[in-house]
TrEMBL record, chain B:
Record key words, sorted: Cell cycle, Cell division, Cell junction, Cell membrane, Cytoplasm, Membrane, Tight junction
InterPro entries from the UniProt entry: PAR6_homolog (IPR051741), PB1-like (IPR053793), PB1_dom (IPR000270), PB1_Par6 (IPR034868), PDZ (IPR001478), PDZ_sf (IPR036034)
Gene3D superfamilies membership: 2.30.42.10, Phosphatidylinositol 3-kinase Catalytic Subunit, Chain A, domain 1
Source organism phylogeny: Eukaryota, Metazoa, Chordata, Craniata, Vertebrata
Compartments, record wording: Cell junction, Tight junction; Cell membrane; Cytoplasm
Protein name per the record: Par-6 family cell polarity regulator gamma
BP term (GO), one: establishment or maintenance of cell polarity
Pfam family, one: PDZ
Parts of the chain that traverse the membrane: none
Domain called PDZ: residue spans: 158-251
Database matches in PROSITE patterns: PB1, PDZ
Residue span(s) of domain PB1: 18-98
Bias type Low complexity, positions: 258-278
UniProt family annotation: Belongs to the PAR6 family.
Amino acid sequence: MMKFRFRRQGADPQREKLKQELFAFNKTVEHGFPNQPSALAFDPELRIMAIGTRSGAVKIYGAPGVEFTGLHRDAATVTQMHFLPGQGRLLTLLDDSSLHLWEIVHHNGCAHLEEALSFQLPSRPGFDGASTPSSLTRVTVVLLLAAGDIAALGTEGGSIYFLDVTTLALLERQTLSPDEILRSVPDDYRCGKALGPVESLQGHLRDPTKILIGYSRGLLVIWNQAAQCVDHVFLGNQQLESLCWGRNSGTIISSHSDGSYAIWPMNTGSSPTLQPSVATVPYGPFPCKAINKILWRNCESGGHFIIFSGGMPRASYGDRHCVSVLRAETLVTLDFTSRIIDFFTVHSTRPEDEFDDPQALAVLLEEELVVLDLQTPGWPSVPAPYLAPLHSSAITCSAHVANVPAKLWARIVSAGEQQSPQPISSASNWPITGGRNLAQEPSQRGLLLTGHEDGTVRFWDASGVALRPLYKLSTAGLFQTDCEHADSLAQAAEDDWPPFRKVGCFDPYSDDPRLGVQKVALCKYTAQMVVAGTAGQVLVLELNDVPTEQAVSVASVDLLQDREGFTWKGHERLSPRAGPLPWPAGFQPRVLVQCLPPAAVTAVTLHAEWSLVAFGTSHGFGLFDYQRKSPVLARCTLHPNDSLAMEGPLSRVKSLKKSLRQSFRRIRKSRVSGKKRIANANSKLQEANAQLAEQACPHDIEMTPVQRRIEPRSADDSLSGVVRCLYFADTFLRDAAHHGPTMWAGTNSGSVFAYALEVPAAVAGGEKRPERAVEAVLGKEVQLMHRAPVVAIAVLDGRGRPLPEPYEASRDLAQAPDMQGGHAVLIASEEQFKVFTLPKVSAKTKFKLTAHEGCRVRKVALATFASVACEDYAETCLACLTNLGDVHVFSVPGLRPQVHYSCIRKEDISGIASCVFTRHGQGFYLISPSEFERFSLSARNITEPLCSLDISWPRDATRARVQESPKLSQANGNPSIILAPQNCDRSPDLTHKGADTPEPPEATLSPMSIDSATSADTTLDTTGDVTVEDVKDFLGSSEESERNLRNLTEDEAHTCTILIK
Amino acid sequence: MNRSFHKSQTLRFYDCSAVEVKSKFGAEFRRFSLNRHKPGKFEDFYQLVVHTHHISNTEVTIGYADVHGDLLPINNDDNFCKAVSSANPLLRVFIQKREEADHYSFGAGTLSRKKKVLVTLRDEGLRRRAHLDIGLPHDFRPVSSIIDVDILPETHRRVRLYRHGCEKPLGFYIRDGTSVRVTPHGLEKVPGIFISRMVPGGLAESTGLLAVNDEVLEVNGIEVAGKTLDQVTDMMIANSHNLIVTVKPANQRNNVVRSSRTSGSSGQSTDSTTSQHSLPATHVLQNFHPEELESDEEADIVIEGTLQPQSVPRMQGAASGSLSRANGSTLTHRLQRDLALHGSVHRLLCSLKADPRHSLVLPQGGVEEHGPAITL
């Protein structure tokens, strides 16, 4: 009898070396749009853009592929960011009023973002009267004076502080208090009232000595920093929101809380200006909301742009998120789907230029970044080459296709270009072009497919650092949905005023939840794909380069197979539109198969060579021949006692999901409320709601202590019939002499069904096989005794390698499988991996993961790991993600554990559920609804940003400062930063990760080998200052439990003298 | 492997009313059939068996292999009936001369376990039979045992629950808690996993070896320290077919006390579901070997499709052939173990007598408190 046991192998040095050459864990890059952005900055000289988030992350983007990431130590909201132009330095303001200076530093030719200095404005009691609440020194605005090295900080209390930027030291004597300003203000304006917080500070491009100060009460002051005196005063009386100082210093524009803006003339007289030259409420006359930010840009061609956000009529459009662009008589109200964070224009900033000449307007919204081309008439939006809103509709599934053939790639790209409005200008018009991408051209093209809630499948170029949208496939057009005409009606009813223009693609509202895409499979050689959805729809599509109009043939497969006693209580199936339908170029549907009952499809697989598609739901699985358009097989996997499966997604299953979601929200809320932040009314309300929600949950859960029932799985556990995986293979199922097509299905209850298929062989040279029916005969039925859900099935050839994909071998892209030696089937369940021989199914090797580690398998994939040392050495291994968020790698077919790394926080269930592995040892998972984290397990195949930036600032000055700034020691309370000095210089991204997720420090450090001794070594290596005691403690810990047992024995041995007879 | 082929047949002839009987005596096989629905009396069956084997003049004991591969006795009408009705489809019958018969080889895993470590205290069994004549156990198998007494600290208890072949649920719950450990820095509170609840009538409760508030230290040889409740739950469920839990009992008064570290001993409690007699606990020397974990695990069931019906009889032959070989090897193996252990067992018994604590009179409730868990 074959036996396999996990033993602690003696460290084989050769194998250990090989492991290091094959495996390495890196979190490399974050794709998508930063979650919860809160601040925006743009450096017009370097043409780079920075986005800050509410979790304290800073991301800098330049040309596609140029990306820098940093994370503040305190997870506080970044409220403002300012670039020191041309220096690659960024000053950030957090909502705890601390300022941080970030620098882009070059290491070994590659640039990284590092935090250099931080500064907190001291709150000085007794500064402004007896009791000064610290809120008075809260920084409201920051201005970098054009001279470069000085920053002015406006505060809640009305004072303005000045700061030396290079050292972040306060220039004490220059502090400008509101009292000083009030002296220059006429008495009747003063009338005993304070000026309020500093709302705006503006510098002048050409006259760096002057600062325009705007106070909340409405007073505008031009302060001469050189002469330390007030140059001019504008006695505004409307509460101020923002200011903009025109380039030719002739105009000041102010925006106000009542939705008005005012233009102030600059006359040189010393008497205060009492009235603005123009004051208008653009969306009046009814009450309007505040204009939060306003920009004034003049143009060489005459006229000027006024761009402002907000100001909408309170009653009718108060809920819209709008930016208005006004030039002469042209007004466009850009109507966005999510909240506006900030916006900037890309324009000339050279002081000698006469005009701003804005080229582009970039608007950062809560969920996306929209860039408009202001030089092209009509101001079209420019598609972004990165920062794609992955979550424009919620992601429901994802798949990765590696090594996409060039031909298919070109066809998908061209299909995508036909979809987007301006295919040609798009790339050239992207205004944010700073930095150089040093990364090599990707050796192969990788395609990431994401399925969305609204029935679309998006194709992303995942070959490099920038995740670029290629093509979007929508399946909604095939079906009649409920709320189809609602949109067009609403649009027609809208007035001409304000002149709304819908911009952006973030649209979280799905027309019909049944459209949601559950599973996607693509055959990269034949450009055929299958998309399966929530209402049991399985759609076979084929790429077509020209638009067509054709009918889609519809078939339905009853998976219950006349089982009695079941009634489906879930949603109806989708009703397809009849008749020929127009299809744009791209993937066009050929066949629609609808499962009955219309439960969500849980597994799907496609074999283009055999023209077969297999699909499974919670009730059973089916096999469909899409060439002859006829069903081949349907099998019910329901256990007779399983009632839950029939209730559909609307009842208990849904409520479980809902309660999970609620508990996540609660966790998230508690995390947010734990932060240092000023509790505004809104967050208080949220907290109250969260508390209410907590109270509302059933009490018995909280009363009884958390306990877990220990019981083996039984056959009639709920949802045992869910089909978890399907697989096609050409292998030996009948006997050892003849191989042939087979189909494998695995269920939630540990059952595996293997069918031998009779697929008529294609005539030599002919693409299509003859029109004969495909037959399926049940060959084997395996019931795993531990009854854990089967998550993956793969057949290994005679050399122990997984079989190639269909057409892969025949097109000379992969080595032909070894059909001589005995095949084996690898069955991965949630608890263990097993390799069985074929055709006689008997256990060969196994690894019991759950029994040993206490973790359960969530995702598995077979991946090829290439060696860094040897060009053509590669191993195929099984990569596995567990419910604890760890990634394990096992050898195949020996199933020996190789390495394991901690990857995702175990609380991050949506991250774990979203994980997808690539064929070459990389992976993606969602770190937020809008961001994929890319990680690599391979030591060779790593996709990470490698870029450089031409920065001009005196190097020696900074060097000295960095040394004197005790950077590492500042990182108190976050050991991962201290512990990973050698990682810091390699990638700031990694440091950020470590701080972001509360992982054990060694997680980010180095691979944890199975052998505990080696992992101990690596931990010690990376610790900065290790004392002898530390080492002792550490060594002691491994034997501690053993010693405890001994101690206990000694202690209690004499106490228990009772003998039992 | 072989068993999987055996099981592969099970569904095919299920409907036949005839039960195929394969009877083995020594190296000889006989085949005959019985009516499933009218098996008749045990006496008739006995006569039929001795007649077919031509051993009418010898006293024999008859055993059969049940669906779980356990060797169970046939010695009255009830268990004969059960043997026939539960045979699917083949009833494998084993015959031994009564004087050679090893009564204590009946029980769970006795047939299926290839690597045999179960050793009977033969001398004690013989001695007992001399004193009072207890009939053969009718239909029982072990449901739990205490193992590894010789290598564990006396404050700990390693309990093995035999789940298969038993319709009862495992029947216990675990929870988080804190336990006090002795560390170099003194006493320290550390998180631990505890048994929180026993289901009345469940396997765990009926053994009496586990109790509420016992701290779980290991699951199948893997320490639970540092693992979360969910992890430990998953580990236990993953091992549920053969669960070995090391606990530190909350009640430390019923611990097994041993005087010498060299010899091991353990009690094995049994659960008799159908027998009328109250059974004395069998005394089985048993140590937990990690290999056992793998070897005695139930194999996954493979049901062959209808692809090649002609190959079925051939596989049948192979299965039974290897079974007999396996039996032969275990017998010799056991013999060797018996010889090797004989001395140490003897020493153990002597030392027990010499131990003054042995003569301590226990309060009556002391034993009852945790059921018939441990007897020595």
